[in-house]
Design brief:
467 residues; alpha/beta; Gyrase A, domain 2; Four Helix Bundle (Hemerythrin (Met), subunit A); Rossmann fold; 3 domains; 13 strands; 16% strand; flat; nucleotide-binding; metal ion binding; GTP binding; GTP-bd_TrmE_N
Length: 467
Protein backbone atom coordinates (compact mmCIF):
# COMPACT_ATOMS: atom_id res chain seq x y z
CA UNK A 1 0.00 0.00 0.00
CA UNK A 2 1.45 3.36 -1.09
CA UNK A 3 0.32 5.93 1.46
CA UNK A 4 2.61 8.93 0.93
CA UNK A 5 2.52 11.76 -1.60
CA UNK A 6 5.38 12.55 -3.95
CA UNK A 7 6.26 15.66 -5.96
CA UNK A 8 8.85 16.67 -8.53
CA UNK A 9 9.55 19.11 -11.33
CA UNK A 10 8.50 17.37 -14.56
CA UNK A 11 9.96 19.79 -17.10
CA UNK A 12 13.62 20.53 -17.89
CA UNK A 13 15.19 23.24 -15.76
CA UNK A 14 16.01 26.49 -17.49
CA UNK A 15 14.08 29.17 -19.32
CA UNK A 16 10.95 28.06 -21.14
CA UNK A 17 7.34 28.89 -21.80
CA UNK A 18 6.08 26.64 -19.05
CA UNK A 19 7.26 24.68 -16.03
CA UNK A 20 5.34 21.86 -14.37
CA UNK A 21 5.40 20.64 -10.78
CA UNK A 22 3.71 17.23 -10.56
CA UNK A 23 2.20 15.84 -7.35
CA UNK A 24 0.79 12.33 -6.88
CA UNK A 25 -0.67 10.61 -3.86
CA UNK A 26 -3.53 10.68 -1.35
CA UNK A 27 -2.70 14.19 -0.05
CA UNK A 28 -2.06 15.82 -3.43
CA UNK A 29 -5.25 17.88 -3.46
CA UNK A 30 -5.01 19.02 0.20
CA UNK A 31 -1.38 20.06 -0.29
CA UNK A 32 -2.24 22.24 -3.29
CA UNK A 33 -5.28 23.71 -1.54
CA UNK A 34 -2.89 25.01 1.13
CA UNK A 35 -0.86 27.09 -1.35
CA UNK A 36 -3.24 27.80 -4.26
CA UNK A 37 -6.14 30.24 -4.54
CA UNK A 38 -8.32 30.21 -7.69
CA UNK A 39 -9.19 33.58 -9.22
CA UNK A 40 -12.83 32.50 -9.27
CA UNK A 41 -14.51 30.68 -6.40
CA UNK A 42 -13.64 27.02 -7.13
CA UNK A 43 -13.36 24.12 -4.69
CA UNK A 44 -10.64 21.65 -5.71
CA UNK A 45 -12.46 18.92 -3.76
CA UNK A 46 -15.26 19.05 -6.31
CA UNK A 47 -13.11 19.25 -9.44
CA UNK A 48 -11.90 16.45 -11.68
CA UNK A 49 -10.06 16.66 -14.99
CA UNK A 50 -10.35 20.43 -14.94
CA UNK A 51 -7.78 23.18 -15.33
CA UNK A 52 -8.18 26.02 -12.83
CA UNK A 53 -6.62 29.48 -13.10
CA UNK A 54 -5.24 31.15 -10.01
CA UNK A 55 -2.17 32.04 -7.96
CA UNK A 56 0.33 30.19 -5.79
CA UNK A 57 0.89 31.92 -2.43
CA UNK A 58 3.70 31.36 0.02
CA UNK A 59 1.19 31.31 2.90
CA UNK A 60 -2.27 30.63 1.60
CA UNK A 61 -3.62 29.75 5.06
CA UNK A 62 -3.05 33.26 6.35
CA UNK A 63 -6.32 35.17 6.22
CA UNK A 64 -4.43 38.47 6.13
CA UNK A 65 -4.14 39.08 2.37
CA UNK A 66 -1.51 41.77 2.96
CA UNK A 67 0.93 39.16 4.29
CA UNK A 68 0.33 36.67 1.52
CA UNK A 69 2.98 36.82 -1.17
CA UNK A 70 2.14 35.67 -4.70
CA UNK A 71 4.77 33.28 -6.02
CA UNK A 72 3.35 32.88 -9.52
CA UNK A 73 0.27 33.01 -11.72
CA UNK A 74 -0.55 29.38 -12.59
CA UNK A 75 -2.92 26.84 -14.10
CA UNK A 76 -3.66 23.88 -11.85
CA UNK A 77 -4.73 20.59 -13.42
CA UNK A 78 -6.79 18.33 -11.14
CA UNK A 79 -6.96 14.59 -11.95
CA UNK A 80 -8.58 12.16 -9.54
CA UNK A 81 -7.86 8.49 -9.01
CA UNK A 82 -8.19 5.96 -10.44
CA UNK A 83 -8.25 7.40 -13.98
CA UNK A 84 -4.78 8.94 -13.87
CA UNK A 85 -1.25 7.98 -14.92
CA UNK A 86 -0.38 6.66 -11.44
CA UNK A 87 -3.98 5.65 -10.56
CA UNK A 88 -3.62 8.10 -7.65
CA UNK A 89 -4.84 11.68 -7.27
CA UNK A 90 -2.57 13.87 -9.40
CA UNK A 91 -2.15 17.62 -9.42
CA UNK A 92 0.00 19.40 -11.99
CA UNK A 93 0.90 23.01 -11.35
CA UNK A 94 1.64 24.74 -14.64
CA UNK A 95 3.68 27.83 -13.89
CA UNK A 96 5.96 30.13 -15.89
CA UNK A 97 9.10 28.48 -17.19
CA UNK A 98 12.34 29.28 -15.45
CA UNK A 99 14.29 27.65 -12.66
CA UNK A 100 13.16 30.00 -9.89
CA UNK A 101 9.33 29.74 -10.14
CA UNK A 102 9.26 25.94 -10.36
CA UNK A 103 11.82 25.52 -7.58
CA UNK A 104 9.96 27.83 -5.21
CA UNK A 105 6.65 26.10 -5.92
CA UNK A 106 8.23 22.68 -5.42
CA UNK A 107 9.71 23.81 -2.08
CA UNK A 108 6.26 25.01 -0.99
CA UNK A 109 4.70 21.68 -1.94
CA UNK A 110 7.38 19.78 -0.02
CA UNK A 111 6.89 22.03 3.02
CA UNK A 112 3.22 21.03 3.10
CA UNK A 113 4.01 17.32 3.45
CA UNK A 114 4.92 15.90 0.06
CA UNK A 115 8.12 13.93 -0.45
CA UNK A 116 10.56 14.57 -3.30
CA UNK A 117 10.03 11.82 -5.87
CA UNK A 118 12.83 9.45 -6.75
CA UNK A 119 13.88 8.98 -10.40
CA UNK A 120 11.03 7.29 -12.27
CA UNK A 121 8.81 7.07 -9.19
CA UNK A 122 5.66 8.30 -10.95
CA UNK A 123 6.04 5.53 -13.54
CA UNK A 124 6.96 3.06 -10.81
CA UNK A 125 3.67 3.84 -9.06
CA UNK A 126 1.85 3.39 -12.36
CA UNK A 127 3.37 -0.09 -12.56
CA UNK A 128 2.78 -1.01 -8.91
CA UNK A 129 -0.83 0.19 -9.13
CA UNK A 130 -1.49 -1.87 -12.25
CA UNK A 131 -1.70 1.03 -14.71
CA UNK A 132 1.21 -0.30 -16.78
CA UNK A 133 3.12 -3.55 -16.97
CA UNK A 134 6.91 -3.51 -16.89
CA UNK A 135 7.38 -3.64 -20.67
CA UNK A 136 5.03 -0.70 -21.11
CA UNK A 137 6.78 1.28 -18.39
CA UNK A 138 10.16 0.74 -20.06
CA UNK A 139 8.68 1.94 -23.35
CA UNK A 140 8.32 5.38 -21.78
CA UNK A 141 12.11 5.74 -21.68
CA UNK A 142 12.29 4.74 -25.34
CA UNK A 143 9.64 7.32 -26.27
CA UNK A 144 11.60 10.06 -24.49
CA UNK A 145 14.89 9.01 -26.13
CA UNK A 146 13.52 8.37 -29.63
CA UNK A 147 15.57 10.08 -32.34
CA UNK A 148 13.54 9.08 -35.42
CA UNK A 149 9.89 8.68 -36.34
CA UNK A 150 10.19 4.90 -36.70
CA UNK A 151 11.92 4.57 -33.33
CA UNK A 152 9.05 6.54 -31.82
CA UNK A 153 6.48 4.27 -33.53
CA UNK A 154 8.10 1.18 -32.02
CA UNK A 155 8.20 2.73 -28.55
CA UNK A 156 4.58 3.85 -28.78
CA UNK A 157 3.59 0.37 -29.95
CA UNK A 158 5.27 -1.12 -26.89
CA UNK A 159 3.52 1.40 -24.64
CA UNK A 160 0.19 0.41 -26.24
CA UNK A 161 0.94 -3.19 -25.26
CA UNK A 162 2.19 -4.71 -28.54
CA UNK A 163 5.09 -6.53 -26.91
CA UNK A 164 3.06 -7.26 -23.77
CA UNK A 165 0.45 -9.13 -25.80
CA UNK A 166 3.17 -11.34 -27.28
CA UNK A 167 4.60 -12.03 -23.83
CA UNK A 168 1.14 -12.73 -22.40
CA UNK A 169 0.50 -15.24 -25.18
CA UNK A 170 3.77 -17.06 -24.44
CA UNK A 171 3.04 -17.13 -20.71
CA UNK A 172 -0.47 -18.47 -21.28
CA UNK A 173 0.92 -21.26 -23.46
CA UNK A 174 3.41 -22.17 -20.74
CA UNK A 175 0.65 -22.15 -18.11
CA UNK A 176 -1.39 -24.49 -20.28
CA UNK A 177 1.54 -26.90 -20.47
CA UNK A 178 2.02 -26.63 -16.70
CA UNK A 179 -1.65 -27.40 -16.07
CA UNK A 180 -1.42 -30.37 -18.43
CA UNK A 181 1.60 -31.77 -16.56
CA UNK A 182 0.21 -31.13 -13.08
CA UNK A 183 -3.04 -32.87 -13.99
CA UNK A 184 -1.02 -36.01 -14.70
CA UNK A 185 1.06 -35.59 -11.54
CA UNK A 186 -2.13 -35.33 -9.45
CA UNK A 187 -3.34 -38.67 -10.77
CA UNK A 188 -0.27 -40.93 -10.53
CA UNK A 189 -2.37 -44.08 -10.87
CA UNK A 190 -2.92 -43.19 -14.53
CA UNK A 191 0.38 -43.71 -16.36
CA UNK A 192 1.16 -40.86 -18.74
CA UNK A 193 0.69 -42.10 -22.25
CA UNK A 194 3.08 -41.64 -25.14
CA UNK A 195 0.74 -39.29 -26.98
CA UNK A 196 0.69 -37.04 -23.91
CA UNK A 197 4.49 -36.76 -24.00
CA UNK A 198 4.21 -35.96 -27.67
CA UNK A 199 1.68 -33.25 -26.83
CA UNK A 200 4.11 -31.67 -24.36
CA UNK A 201 6.88 -31.66 -26.97
CA UNK A 202 4.61 -30.14 -29.61
CA UNK A 203 3.44 -27.36 -27.31
CA UNK A 204 6.98 -26.60 -26.10
CA UNK A 205 8.26 -26.41 -29.68
CA UNK A 206 5.46 -23.98 -30.52
CA UNK A 207 6.45 -21.70 -27.64
CA UNK A 208 10.11 -21.98 -28.61
CA UNK A 209 9.24 -20.80 -32.11
CA UNK A 210 7.38 -17.78 -30.73
CA UNK A 211 10.37 -16.86 -28.57
CA UNK A 212 12.83 -17.31 -31.43
CA UNK A 213 10.71 -15.07 -33.65
CA UNK A 214 10.91 -12.34 -31.01
CA UNK A 215 14.64 -12.85 -30.54
CA UNK A 216 15.15 -12.48 -34.29
CA UNK A 217 13.94 -8.88 -33.95
CA UNK A 218 16.41 -7.99 -31.19
CA UNK A 219 19.19 -6.62 -33.42
CA UNK A 220 16.76 -4.43 -35.34
CA UNK A 221 15.16 -3.25 -32.10
CA UNK A 222 18.52 -2.42 -30.55
CA UNK A 223 19.41 -0.32 -33.59
CA UNK A 224 16.18 1.67 -33.36
CA UNK A 225 16.81 2.18 -29.66
CA UNK A 226 20.53 2.97 -29.68
CA UNK A 227 21.36 3.77 -33.30
CA UNK A 228 23.31 1.84 -35.94
CA UNK A 229 27.03 2.38 -35.35
CA UNK A 230 28.30 2.87 -38.90
CA UNK A 231 31.95 3.53 -39.73
CA UNK A 232 33.14 5.13 -42.97
CA UNK A 233 36.57 3.72 -43.66
CA UNK A 234 39.10 3.39 -46.44
CA UNK A 235 42.57 4.56 -47.32
CA UNK A 236 43.39 8.30 -47.35
CA UNK A 237 41.82 10.61 -49.93
CA UNK A 238 39.11 8.23 -51.21
CA UNK A 239 36.35 10.67 -50.22
CA UNK A 240 35.30 9.50 -46.76
CA UNK A 241 34.81 13.00 -45.37
CA UNK A 242 32.96 14.09 -48.51
CA UNK A 243 30.61 11.15 -48.02
CA UNK A 244 30.05 12.11 -44.38
CA UNK A 245 29.23 15.68 -45.37
CA UNK A 246 26.74 14.68 -48.05
CA UNK A 247 25.01 12.19 -45.73
CA UNK A 248 24.74 14.85 -43.02
CA UNK A 249 23.79 17.51 -45.60
CA UNK A 250 26.29 19.87 -44.00
CA UNK A 251 30.02 20.52 -44.11
CA UNK A 252 30.97 18.75 -40.92
CA UNK A 253 34.40 17.43 -41.98
CA UNK A 254 37.26 19.26 -43.68
CA UNK A 255 37.76 18.11 -47.27
CA UNK A 256 41.03 18.64 -49.18
CA UNK A 257 43.05 16.82 -51.82
CA UNK A 258 45.80 16.26 -49.26
CA UNK A 259 45.87 12.67 -47.95
CA UNK A 260 45.66 12.40 -44.15
CA UNK A 261 43.59 15.57 -43.60
CA UNK A 262 41.23 13.77 -41.21
CA UNK A 263 43.27 13.11 -38.07
CA UNK A 264 40.54 12.12 -35.62
CA UNK A 265 37.27 10.21 -35.47
CA UNK A 266 34.21 12.36 -36.22
CA UNK A 267 30.84 11.06 -35.00
CA UNK A 268 27.36 12.40 -35.81
CA UNK A 269 23.75 11.17 -35.62
CA UNK A 270 21.50 11.13 -38.67
CA UNK A 271 18.08 9.82 -39.62
CA UNK A 272 18.07 7.52 -42.64
CA UNK A 273 14.53 6.56 -43.58
CA UNK A 274 13.52 6.35 -39.94
CA UNK A 275 16.63 4.42 -38.87
CA UNK A 276 18.86 6.27 -36.37
CA UNK A 277 22.45 5.99 -37.57
CA UNK A 278 25.58 6.93 -35.64
CA UNK A 279 27.83 7.75 -38.58
CA UNK A 280 31.55 7.85 -37.92
CA UNK A 281 34.17 9.28 -40.27
CA UNK A 282 37.63 7.88 -39.59
CA UNK A 283 41.14 8.89 -40.47
CA UNK A 284 42.44 7.20 -43.60
CA UNK A 285 44.25 3.99 -42.66
CA UNK A 286 47.82 3.79 -43.90
CA UNK A 287 51.39 3.43 -42.64
CA UNK A 288 52.65 6.82 -41.52
CA UNK A 289 55.48 8.38 -39.52
CA UNK A 290 53.34 11.35 -38.53
CA UNK A 291 52.67 10.85 -34.80
CA UNK A 292 49.30 12.68 -34.80
CA UNK A 293 48.09 10.86 -37.91
CA UNK A 294 49.25 7.58 -36.40
CA UNK A 295 47.02 8.19 -33.36
CA UNK A 296 44.12 8.87 -35.73
CA UNK A 297 44.78 5.61 -37.56
CA UNK A 298 44.71 3.66 -34.30
CA UNK A 299 41.41 5.30 -33.38
CA UNK A 300 40.07 4.30 -36.81
CA UNK A 301 41.01 0.68 -36.17
CA UNK A 302 39.25 0.75 -32.79
CA UNK A 303 36.14 2.26 -34.39
CA UNK A 304 36.09 -0.54 -36.97
CA UNK A 305 36.24 -3.19 -34.23
CA UNK A 306 33.20 -1.65 -32.48
CA UNK A 307 31.21 -0.93 -35.67
CA UNK A 308 27.94 -2.66 -36.56
CA UNK A 309 28.14 -1.62 -40.21
CA UNK A 310 31.05 -0.59 -42.40
CA UNK A 311 30.97 1.71 -45.41
CA UNK A 312 34.20 0.68 -47.18
CA UNK A 313 35.07 3.50 -49.57
CA UNK A 314 37.19 2.92 -52.69
CA UNK A 315 38.44 5.49 -55.23
CA UNK A 316 37.18 4.62 -58.71
CA UNK A 317 40.25 6.35 -60.19
CA UNK A 318 42.82 4.21 -58.41
CA UNK A 319 43.79 0.59 -58.71
CA UNK A 320 43.02 -1.73 -55.81
CA UNK A 321 46.29 -1.93 -53.87
CA UNK A 322 47.90 -3.26 -50.71
CA UNK A 323 46.47 -0.40 -48.57
CA UNK A 324 42.95 -1.38 -49.65
CA UNK A 325 43.80 -5.02 -48.98
CA UNK A 326 44.94 -4.28 -45.40
CA UNK A 327 41.66 -2.52 -44.60
CA UNK A 328 39.59 -5.25 -46.28
CA UNK A 329 41.19 -7.80 -43.97
CA UNK A 330 40.20 -5.67 -40.97
CA UNK A 331 36.54 -5.51 -42.00
CA UNK A 332 35.94 -8.84 -43.75
CA UNK A 333 34.08 -10.36 -40.77
CA UNK A 334 31.80 -7.33 -40.46
CA UNK A 335 28.54 -6.41 -42.17
CA UNK A 336 28.93 -3.63 -44.67
CA UNK A 337 28.65 -1.97 -48.07
CA UNK A 338 31.38 -1.40 -50.65
CA UNK A 339 31.20 2.22 -51.82
CA UNK A 340 32.94 3.07 -55.11
CA UNK A 341 33.37 6.84 -55.03
CA UNK A 342 34.32 9.53 -57.60
CA UNK A 343 32.40 7.96 -60.49
CA UNK A 344 31.95 11.47 -61.94
CA UNK A 345 35.62 11.53 -62.98
CA UNK A 346 36.66 10.11 -66.33
CA UNK A 347 38.67 6.93 -66.09
CA UNK A 348 38.75 3.32 -67.16
CA UNK A 349 37.05 1.70 -64.17
CA UNK A 350 36.50 -1.71 -65.74
CA UNK A 351 39.47 -3.43 -64.12
CA UNK A 352 38.99 -1.56 -60.86
CA UNK A 353 35.34 -2.60 -60.61
CA UNK A 354 36.21 -6.21 -61.34
CA UNK A 355 38.75 -6.37 -58.51
CA UNK A 356 36.45 -4.66 -56.01
CA UNK A 357 33.65 -7.08 -56.86
CA UNK A 358 36.00 -9.95 -55.98
CA UNK A 359 36.75 -8.72 -52.44
CA UNK A 360 34.10 -8.85 -49.73
CA UNK A 361 31.84 -10.84 -52.09
CA UNK A 362 28.84 -10.85 -49.72
CA UNK A 363 28.80 -7.07 -49.47
CA UNK A 364 26.66 -5.05 -51.92
CA UNK A 365 28.51 -2.57 -54.14
CA UNK A 366 27.14 0.95 -54.57
CA UNK A 367 28.69 3.46 -56.98
CA UNK A 368 28.53 7.11 -55.95
CA UNK A 369 29.93 10.55 -56.45
CA UNK A 370 29.98 12.27 -53.07
CA UNK A 371 30.89 15.60 -54.65
CA UNK A 372 28.10 15.46 -57.26
CA UNK A 373 25.73 13.69 -54.82
CA UNK A 374 25.09 10.86 -57.25
CA UNK A 375 24.05 7.44 -55.93
CA UNK A 376 23.58 8.77 -52.37
CA UNK A 377 19.87 7.94 -52.20
CA UNK A 378 20.62 4.41 -53.39
CA UNK A 379 23.28 4.05 -50.68
CA UNK A 380 20.93 5.37 -47.98
CA UNK A 381 18.17 2.99 -49.08
CA UNK A 382 20.57 0.04 -48.99
CA UNK A 383 21.59 0.89 -45.41
CA UNK A 384 17.93 1.07 -44.32
CA UNK A 385 17.01 -2.17 -46.13
CA UNK A 386 19.88 -4.02 -44.46
CA UNK A 387 18.46 -2.97 -41.06
CA UNK A 388 14.76 -3.50 -41.72
CA UNK A 389 14.87 -6.27 -44.29
CA UNK A 390 12.78 -4.02 -46.51
CA UNK A 391 9.84 -4.14 -44.06
CA UNK A 392 8.06 -0.98 -42.98
CA UNK A 393 7.79 -0.11 -39.30
CA UNK A 394 4.43 0.63 -37.68
CA UNK A 395 3.26 1.11 -34.10
CA UNK A 396 1.84 -2.44 -34.26
CA UNK A 397 5.26 -3.97 -34.94
CA UNK A 398 6.39 -6.06 -31.95
CA UNK A 399 10.17 -5.83 -31.65
CA UNK A 400 12.58 -6.57 -28.83
CA UNK A 401 14.63 -3.41 -28.29
CA UNK A 402 15.78 -3.93 -24.73
CA UNK A 403 18.83 -6.03 -23.80
CA UNK A 404 17.06 -7.10 -20.59
CA UNK A 405 14.16 -8.50 -22.58
CA UNK A 406 16.55 -10.30 -24.91
CA UNK A 407 18.40 -11.92 -22.02
CA UNK A 408 15.16 -13.09 -20.39
CA UNK A 409 13.94 -14.67 -23.62
CA UNK A 410 17.27 -16.47 -23.96
CA UNK A 411 16.89 -17.83 -20.42
CA UNK A 412 13.39 -19.07 -21.25
CA UNK A 413 14.73 -20.75 -24.38
CA UNK A 414 17.36 -22.64 -22.35
CA UNK A 415 14.66 -23.91 -19.97
CA UNK A 416 12.54 -25.12 -22.90
CA UNK A 417 15.54 -26.89 -24.46
CA UNK A 418 15.99 -28.69 -21.15
CA UNK A 419 12.31 -29.66 -21.21
CA UNK A 420 12.69 -31.32 -24.61
CA UNK A 421 15.78 -33.20 -23.45
CA UNK A 422 13.98 -34.32 -20.29
CA UNK A 423 10.98 -35.57 -22.27
CA UNK A 424 13.22 -37.52 -24.66
CA UNK A 425 15.01 -39.13 -21.71
CA UNK A 426 11.73 -40.03 -20.01
CA UNK A 427 12.46 -37.88 -16.96
CA UNK A 428 9.74 -37.60 -14.24
CA UNK A 429 7.01 -35.06 -14.85
CA UNK A 430 7.86 -33.04 -11.75
CA UNK A 431 11.37 -32.45 -13.16
CA UNK A 432 9.88 -31.31 -16.48
CA UNK A 433 7.48 -28.99 -14.62
CA UNK A 434 10.41 -27.19 -12.94
CA UNK A 435 11.84 -26.06 -16.27
CA UNK A 436 8.44 -25.06 -17.61
CA UNK A 437 8.02 -22.91 -14.51
CA UNK A 438 11.53 -21.50 -15.02
CA UNK A 439 10.64 -20.49 -18.58
CA UNK A 440 7.43 -18.83 -17.36
CA UNK A 441 9.32 -16.84 -14.72
CA UNK A 442 12.04 -15.78 -17.18
CA UNK A 443 9.43 -14.41 -19.57
CA UNK A 444 7.47 -12.94 -16.65
CA UNK A 445 10.39 -10.66 -15.79
CA UNK A 446 9.69 -8.82 -19.05
CA UNK A 447 6.12 -7.79 -18.26
CA UNK A 448 6.62 -7.74 -14.49
CA UNK A 449 4.52 -10.76 -13.49
CA UNK A 450 7.57 -12.47 -12.04
CA UNK A 451 9.90 -9.54 -11.40
CA UNK A 452 11.78 -8.97 -8.13
CA UNK A 453 11.88 -5.75 -6.13
CA UNK A 454 15.58 -5.24 -6.90
CA UNK A 455 14.94 -5.41 -10.63
CA UNK A 456 12.01 -2.98 -10.30
CA UNK A 457 14.20 -0.47 -8.46
CA UNK A 458 17.01 -0.84 -11.00
CA UNK A 459 14.74 -0.30 -14.01
CA UNK A 460 12.98 2.80 -12.69
CA UNK A 461 16.26 4.30 -11.47
CA UNK A 462 17.08 4.88 -15.17
CA UNK A 463 14.14 7.27 -15.52
CA UNK A 464 14.47 10.99 -15.02
CA UNK A 465 13.05 12.61 -11.88
CA UNK A 466 9.50 13.77 -12.51
CA UNK A 467 8.53 10.91 -14.85
Amino acid sequence: MIDDTIAAISTPLGEGGIGIVRISGPDAINIVKAIFKPVKDRDLDNENFKIIYGHIYNNNNNSDTVNREIIDEVLVSVMRAPNTYTKEDIIEINCHGGSLPVREILELVLSKGARLAEPGEFSKRAFLNGRLDMAQAEAIIDIIRSTTGDALKLAVGQLKGGLSRKIDFIQNELLEITAFIEANIDFPEDEIEEYNLTTIKTKVKKVKEEIKNLLDTADTGRIYRNGLKTVITGKPNVGKSSLLNVLLKEKRAIVTDIPGTTRDVIEEILNLGGVPVKIIDTAGIRDTDDMIEKIGVEKSKSAIEEAEMILMVFDSNEEYDYEDEKIVKMVEKKCGIKVLNKIDLKNNRKNINYKIKEVLPNWPLIEISAIKEKGIEKLEKKIVDMVTGGKSITSDTAIISNIRHKNQLKKALIHLEDVLVAVDKGMPLDIIAIDIRGAWEAVGEINGTAVTENIIDKIFAEFCIGK
